[in-house]
């Protein structure tokens, strides 16, 4: 089997002729003696949605933090849209990247964390226009237009003038999603976006993410403990355990016919 057909078997997404937008190659990460990621190879294709599941402590968040350059790998390389993180190409040679280079690459990735981190002293609208004005250099008018569109998309336009403290956790997370989308990232990275929420607001946030997934060609990496959500939204599910991708495939295959004992045990814990 060629590499391309092998890769195509792993996802329900049509990757024909596409180049990955994110490429991890042999990425390892240790904290002291603790090797948290062990030689990860991982590709995400433009428009593809990948759910990352696995037990706590298996390295999922570290995988995401590396992409945001919040951590550096102990070994291996990561590329975003053909550009190396931590290094840039100058006259055909890779040299250590400067902050400007990292800044540009980070701009391609919109991240939504477990904790939404909205600025408490700013209105919802202001929260959404700060970065597009300061980082992208948009005029206030353009930023407001974009922000309103995104707030509308997540059902929060009516609250544009309110402050974060007056919103529920689910509503704040919807604003955090709008705030990330305003930057028009190439990839959206969600790290357990619902695990800090009250159970009654989990559904509204998952629905917003599902809508975004359905609407467009946004590439997504979703770290989640919500198995039915992963099944509904993802083209591919990666099961992480002990710092490795133990098994991956389209959700129809992975959930119905898990091949490894570890994945079977993990899935049983959700019944
Ligand atoms: P997951 O997201 O799957 O729960 P994490 O990537 O958060 O896993 O963590 C994997 C392991 O890495 C855990 O054992 C955790 O304690 C360790 N770890 C993560 N970040 C750090 C850090 N900054 N310093 C030391 N250990 C860390």
TrEMBL record:
A GO molecular function held by the record: ABC-type amino acid transporter activity
Domain of life: Bacteria
Keyword set, alphabetical order: Amino-acid transport, ATP-binding, Cell membrane, Membrane, Nucleotide-binding, Transport
Residues in ABC transporter domain copies: 22-267
Claim: Membrane is one of the keywords in the record: yes
Record-level GO cellular component terms: plasma membrane
Keyword Nucleotide-binding: yes
A Pfam family recorded for this sequence: ABC_tran
Topology of this chain in the membrane: Peripheral membrane protein
Chief location: membrane
InterPro entries in the cross-refs: AAA+_ATPase, ABC_ATPase_HisP-typ, ABC_transporter-like_ATP-bd, ABC_transporter-like_CS, Ectoine_EhuA, MetN_ABC_transporter-like, P-loop_NTPase
Subcellular location: Cell membrane
NCBIfam families associated with the record: ectoine_ehuA (TIGR03005)
Record-stated family: Belongs to the ABC transporter superfamily.
Protein name as catalogued: Amino acid ABC transporter ATP-binding protein, PAAT family (TC 3.A.1.3.-)
Species the sequence originates in: Melghirimyces thermohalophilus
Taxonomic classification: Bacteria, Bacillati, Bacillota, Bacilli, Bacillales
């Amino acid at each position: 089997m060629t590499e391309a057909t092998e890769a195509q078997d792993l996802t329900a997404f049509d990757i024909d002729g596409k180049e990955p937008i994110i490429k991890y190659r042999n990425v390892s990460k240790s904290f002291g003696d603790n090797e948290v990621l062990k030689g990860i190879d991982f590709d995400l294709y433009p428009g593809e949605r990948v759910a990352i599941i696995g037990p706590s402590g298996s390295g999922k968040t570290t995988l995401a933090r590396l992409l945001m350059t919040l951590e550096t790998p102990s070994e291996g390389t990561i590329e975003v849209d053909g550009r190396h993180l931590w290094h840039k190409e100058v006259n055909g040679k890779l040299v250590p990247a400067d902050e400007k280079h990292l800044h540009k690459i980070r701009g391609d990735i919109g991240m939504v964390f477990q904790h939404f981190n909205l600025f408490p002293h700013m209105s919802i609208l202001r929260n959404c226009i700060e970065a597009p004005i300061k980082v992208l250099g948009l005029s206030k008018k353009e930023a407001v237009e974009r922000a309103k569109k995104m707030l509308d998309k997540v059902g929060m336009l009516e609250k544009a003038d309110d402050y974060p403290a007056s919103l529920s956790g689910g509503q704040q997370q919807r604003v955090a999603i709008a705030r990330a989308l305003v930057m028009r990232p190439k990839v959206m990275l969600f790290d357990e976006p619902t695990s800090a929420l009250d159970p009654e607001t989990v559904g509204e946030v998952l629905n917003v993410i599902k809508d975004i997934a359905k609407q467009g060609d946004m590439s997504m990496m979703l770290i989640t403990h919500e198995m039915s959500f992963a099944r509904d939204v993802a083209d591919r599910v990666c099961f992480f355990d002990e710092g490795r991708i133990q098994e991956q495939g389209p959700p129809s295959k992975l959930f119905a016919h898990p091949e490894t004992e570890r994945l079977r045990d993990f899935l049983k814990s959700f019944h």
